[in-house]
Amino acid sequence: MAHATRRLNTTGLTFRGAGLAALAVPPLGFLVVFFAWPVAAIIGRGFGSGGVGTAIGDSLTWKLAGFTVASAGVSTIVAVLGGLPVAFLLARVRLPGVSLVRTLVLVPFVLPTVVVGLAFRALWPDGGLLPLVLANAFFNVAVVARTVSGLWSHLDPRTVDAARALGASPWRAFRSVTLPALAPAIASSAAVVFLFCATSFGVVLILGGAKYRTLETEIYLRTVELLDLSGAAALSLVQFAAVVAALVVGALARRRRENAVRLRSGSETARRPRGGEWWAVAAGLAVIALLMTPIVALLVESVSTSDGWSLAGYEALAGHGSRNALQVSGWDAASMSLRTAFDATILAMIVGVLASVVLVALRRTPGRLARGMGETMDAALMLPLGVSAVTVGFGYLVTLDALPGDLRTSPLLVPLAQALVIIPLIVRMVLPVLRSVDVRLRQAASTLGASPGRVWREIDLPLTARSLVAAAGFGYVVALGEFGATSFLARPDAPTLPVAVATLISRPGELNNQMAYAACALLMIVTVVAVVLIDRFGAVRGQNSVGEF
Q1: Rounded mean pLDDT of 23-41?
Q2: DSSP for 130-174, written as a single string
Q3: Which residues does the UniProt record annotate as the domain ABC transmembrane type-1 (predicted)?
Q4: What number is the average pLDDT over the span 186-192?
Q5: What is the three-class DSSP state of 132?
Q6: Rounded distance between C-alpha atoms, residue 219 and residue 213, angstroms
């Protein structure tokens, strides 16, 4: 009997392993074909030209790397300092309007980069280092706030109360009790923010100009304008090393956060502020007000002309701009954005959900091998966020002609690139929800004879449906505003709206400028409405969104 039982268990594990392998093929295949292969091709061409060693030894390379790291580091510090009081609002405060704060703080994170760039240019017309740093921090306050609040809401407030009872001031209680407990979440969010800032493209391109260049914009310059593949390859290698380091730090910090002691549920810890806590509330509200300032400035700029208030920019979207700056109308570009983002979201959801299912199964499989495979796959899925979108885009043009049908001329080219960008976001939203499903429910269904497919349909899908819809909506919004790879791949006769905006601001004429701001305002309004709907839908909460990175 024992022998038969062991044989049955072995057979079950074999079938389970085969099923996991089958599920893992689509996401891993997508990653290999549409990420690893194009990037390796570009780097290989750079090495083949023999100029990588020269480029790496060039002082300009390390000057660019130093500026990239320094500016990203300062932006990260600003984002962390701004995100902590907002995290306190989300985690500990029970006041009217806190749910609105939760929605507002997420808006900057999903705004298209060209929108943010023009919003800050409305405040600083000449651009420069300060608006560049602030714009990158503006994007990422949500990452800090929602990641830290996810842990903060589960910390037992009685530890702080005990410290206060022993005579500690509010600041000392925070510094000695709360801050050490929040350290894993702060480190995790800081690593991700640094990653986003170090690979920022649209903001640096618009606000930095020719004076302030990062590795990302220099890769674009050398690839597109100078055709210096060896130099671009060298910079890609330096950038890739920084990305891997940030991902390792983030993974280690996330593991510490997942293992942190959680003693209370979030609903029990929120209460009205007391005493010195009102200062933290005021600071959090001040940060929210500052986050709204560039948005308001952009809306004002979209209706401002040299002759006063006007809707000329919005009306001009029906045309091609001054001196036919665009080959299509602004509304045609908007329509292209909607269709492209839809295709990208469908692709990303298929790959992202399958990848999440595999990661959950690997985590629940006993043994170090399964755990190591899961962690490796998880990290690999995050890599597209940190590698130059320009490198990926140029790699598509170099490699995809080898596939049947020559995808370089296919309308799927831009959706493929956008899907690669949003897959990590979808995985980070879907993965924690799938992990939260009680494994005993699956086991009970299996015991009653349900097949794995039926278990997924009857157990997992109903419990995760709302989060799946939210992930799709979130991914759609991000794809709608994607600019890095799209700016390189979109054809002039089929631009997306962010690419059209970049074209308009590069051409002279007040009408082109007004059209660009009007298009940005429309993108921003669509983004805000989508975020509000997703949040009101009730699926985007705390770590189930950007906070799980």
Answers
A1: 88
A2: HHHHHHHHHHHHHHHHHHHHHHHTTS-THHHHHHHHTT--HHHHI
A3: 65-248, 334-535
A4: 83
A5: helix
A6: 10
The sign of the CA dihedral 58, 62, 67, 68 is positive
Burial 466-486 (b: 16+ CB within 10 A, else e): bbbebbbbbbbbbbbbbbbbb
* CB-neighbour burial class of residue 188 (10 A; exposed 0-12, middle 13-18, buried 19+): buried
The secondary structure of residue 317, as a DSSP letter, is T
Which H helix or E strand runs over 305? strand 304-305
Phi then psi for 304, rounded to 5 degrees?
-105, 130
Name residue, tokens 């007040």.
510
- Cβ neighbour number for residue 57 with a 10 Å cutoff: 10
CA 537: distance to chain centroid? Answer: 20
Q: Alpha-carbon dihedral of residues 437, 443, 449, 451, nearest 10 degrees? A: 50
With a threshold of 0.85, does the pTM exceed it?
no
Measured CA to CA in angstroms, residue 464 lies from 103, 207, 473 at distances of 21, 41, 14
d(CA 304, CA 313) in angstroms, rounded, equals 9
Please give the pLDDT value at position 347. Answer: 94
Q: b or e along 93-103 (b: 16 or more beta carbons within 10 Å of the residue's beta carbon)?
A: beeeebeebbb
State the pLDDT at residue 257. 52
Kindly write down the DSSP assignment for every residue of 367-385, as one continuous string. SHHHHHHHHHHHHHHHGGG
Looking at this protein, which amino acid is placed at residue 16? Answer: R
pLDDT tens digits for range 378-421: 878 888 876 777 778 878 878 887 777 777 778 888 999 999 98
Percent of the chain at pLDDT above 70? 84
Please tell me what DSSP assigns to residue 309.
Answer: E
Say how far apart CA 278 and CA 507 lie, in whole Å.
Answer: 49
Query: What residue type is 536 in one-letter code?
Result: R
Residue 523, both tokens:
């993108």
Segment 465-492 mean pLDDT:
84
CB atoms within 10 A of CB 53: 11
Structural tokens at position 440: 């005993």
Asked whether the predicted pLDDT for residue 65 surpasses 90, the reply is no
**Rounded mean pLDDT, 158-168:** 75
CATH placement of domain 49-269+277-302:
1.10.3720.10
How confident is the model over 428-447, as pLDDT tens digits?
878 877 777 767 777 777 67
- Residue 522 · residue 530 · CB < 8 Å: no
